[in-house]
Amino acid sequence: MSDDHQHSGAREHDHPIDWREHGVKVIPGDSLDPNTAQTPGMNRAAAINRARAGAEKIWAGTVVIHPNAKTGAHHHGDLESIIYVVKGRARMRWGEKLEYVAEAGPGDFIFVPPYVPHQEINASPDEALECVLVRSGQEPVVVNLDIEPAEKPEGVLWKDPIHR
């Protein structure tokens, strides 16, 4: 391959790429796929993955946690996760005994490193928690852990020292 073709975006043998088929994809919000790994207490739906969009390195979708609900303790193997809060109030607990806590609201991003045991909690008694979730890989890894929940949020008014 000559130098002037090396960075042209062309694939081997200089066949033109069908950008219509292999270009930008828009996934309508009402067509997300709920057939993905689930954690009790939350509804995940896939928007961007290999099957739906041809993604190789990232996965994206939505998560809804019902008012007052919490997930079980879980982790996502070697995947990195980013959660963007669209609506509602998220309380995250993490650690071997879920002993650490932080809260996030609309517009906030949450980063969850690989293998971190965590629990997502909807801190609102009457509003659903709606988030966008992005992961660093295609495998929908969810390892549900047998850790006694640090907190049973139903009917408990509780604030950590950071968010008084």
UniProtKB/TrEMBL annotation:
CDD domains: cupin_BLR2406-like
Presence of keyword Isomerase: yes
Domain Cupin type-2: 62-132
Leader peptide range in chain numbering: none
Comp. bias regions, Basic and acidic residues: 1-24
Region (Disordered): 1-39
Keyword flag Cell membrane: no
A molecular function (GO) term: isomerase activity
Source superkingdom: Bacteria
Pfam families: Cupin_2 (PF07883)
InterPro entries, sorted: Bacilysin_H2HPP_isomerase, Cupin_2, RmlC-like_jellyroll, RmlC_Cupin_sf
Keyword tags: Isomerase
Record-linked PANTHER family: H2HPP ISOMERASE
Name of the protein described by the UniProt record: Mannose-6-phosphate isomerase
